[in-house]
Amino acid sequence: AHTTPCFHPKGWFAEAATYFDAKNAIYGLKCEVAVTAHFPYFCTHVSSCHVPGATHDFELFKRGYFNYLDYLLKLPTERVRLPGDAQSRHWALLCDLGYIGPEGVSPDVRRICPVKEAMTHQDITYNLTHSRFRIHIERFFGRLLGLFTVLR
Question: Are residues 20 and 53 in contact, defined by beta-carbon separation less than 8 angstroms?
Answer without folding.
Answer: yes
